Amino acid sequence: MACGPKHTMEKMIHILIVDDYAVVREGLRAFLTTEPDMVVVGDAADEETAVQQCQALQPDVVVMDLAMPNNEGIEAIRAIRSQCPAVAVLVLTNFAEEERVIAALKAGAHGYMLKDATTQDIIQAIRDVSEGKSVLHPSVSYVVVHALQTPNEEDQTALGDLTKREVEVLQLVAQGHTNQEIATRLEIDERTVRVHVSHVLQKLNLENRTQAALFALRNGLAALH
Fold first, then answer.
1. Does residue 50 form part of some domain?
2. Are residues 83 and 62 in contact, defined by beta-carbon separation less than 8 angstroms?
3. What is the pLDDT of residues 3-32, one digit of tens each?
4. Cβ contacts of 187 within 8 Å, gap of 6 or more
């Protein structure tokens, strides 16, 4: 995944950490707060508290595990995305099973990282999802592609509803480009890109850019690099 633009103090990323282990929450807080563009606004040890904290604190990014006390991590993602649609959810967990990965992404997670990732990879993933990019740990990427290898008839029908420009935008979204980067590449203004992205998500019945990227992978419009 391409690195985003360099952040400054003017653009702070507000983060909510969700994990049932206090040592993990404290460890994440310790290294995230050393970043000049990040501030941890709160943490939660269970799913219900996570949703409540998200509503109260309105963070930019929620970094959350799936292995939670009530085994309702997926439902928590769905609730956060429904009640706080501007918030990006980055899963950070030990599990890369196909069922969990696909369920999390369908629930609306913007990214899925494993806890064996480096500190810098986690930091960059947070920056990326805060900018609307999709992020998958390399191991997870191959799980996803394996699960989504075969396009279905519904995909092809929906794809046929896209204009040529919307397909171009979908491909660039799948490659991890921001709206500003897409605007530059296609020589159009950023507002027009936002309209195109909105139309693509609506026509394909998708919730976010991560799901759009997965759709593009499944239908041969993008490839893993």
1. yes
2. no
3. 344 444 458 999 999 999 999 999 999 999
4. none
